[in-house]
Amino acid sequence: MTVLEVATVDYHTAGEPFRIVPAGLPPVPGDTVAERRAIALGAGGTATSPRPSALDTVRQLLTREPRGHAGMYGGFVVPADDSEAHLGVLFFHKDGYSTACGHGTIALGAWAVDSGLVAAPEDGTAQVRIDVPSGRVTALVHRVGGRTTAVTFRNVPTRVLARAVGVDTSAGRVAVDLADSGAVYASVAVPEVSPATLDELTARGREIRAALLGSHDLYGVIFHQELAAGPEGQRRQRNVTVFADGQIDRSPCGSGTSARLALLAADGWRGELLHESVIGTVFTGRVTGERDGGLVTEVTGQAHRTGEHRFVLAEADALGTGFLL
């Protein structure tokens, strides 16, 4: 007997998965997306330790093995805050629910056009307005010959919170810069970002997040390496973002790129940033203006559909919603 059935549409954005659940969810009360996230966390729950609920059972089913994995990310499609937006979304990962997700916004923009939810020209750009827990964001879906070629994520305003905050780690004291781009990120300069350094950076990211979580509600730690300038003189950096409980972003991190752009602007640099991921995929980012005391940023990348799935949980399945290794 099947006790739970969930249909998803899966995308990846620059290598980072995004599992979309467009319908069939347990009721998620609340008047806004931010309220729905707070209710999803539950009384006494946190962003990485939500209280048990019917919705959280679905999250666990989709992010745990054997149906998911520890690197899975996704979004529950919910009503928008008002009629000015096309949809709302609750972002989820293996540990809980985040306030922002740039790579997810890029994937949602592509999905909204691919699915026909938002009309788009054969050649030109469609705007997909999305309410997320941190505010209203926009996915600009670029089209050529009836095909989506790229998506630009226009974020909520990003603000620099603090510079050169000292944090003690097992590898020594490090200086971190903090910025809020819908979620709070700590940026740390390192000599190398590569698959060979991932274990070390993940361990250090956990330590930094634990040290700053109480004072800054830190979501992720961005380790960045300066690279040679791009082909047209663009600033070029490679990064890996460690978020939640040691989860690794395979993409260059969309909202993390916004955080990096704000910090670079605070240092007096404004231009196009070529932001590489640990697997070599690239987002391009730029500061486009100022609003509400922060910087407006745009981050462009590509999202591709990887499959459509119908997941089931059988009553006789002793593993239930699954496990994490």
Q: What would you say this structure looks like, in words?
A:
This protein has 325 residues and is of the alpha+beta class. The protein contains 5 helices and 18 strands. It has helices at 33-41, 54-63, 102-114, 198-216, 254-266, and strands at residues 2-13, 16-21, 73-78, 87-93, 97-98, 124-132, 135-144, 147-154, 159-169, 172-180, 184-189, 218-226, 235-243, 247-248, 273-276, 282-291, 294-301, 303-314. It has an 18-stranded mixed β-sheet that branches. Strand 9 (159-169) and strand 10 (172-180) form a beta hairpin. The chain is globular, with a radius of gyration of 19 Å. The model has no long low-confidence stretch (mean pLDDT 97).
What distinguishing features does this structure have?
325 residues; 5 helices; 18-stranded mixed beta sheet; alpha+beta
Average pLDDT, all residues: 97
Assign the structural class, choosing from mainly alpha, mainly beta, alpha/beta, alpha+beta, or little secondary structure: alpha+beta
N-C termini distance: 27 Å
Largest sheet at a glance?
18 strands, mixed
Question: Helical proportion?
Answer: 10-25%
Strand content: 35-45%
**Oligomer type:** single chain
Order of helices and strands: EEHHEEEHEEEEEEHEEEHEEEE
- Rg for CA atoms: 19 Å
Number of strands: 18
Low-confidence stretches: none
Number of helices: 5
Shape: globular
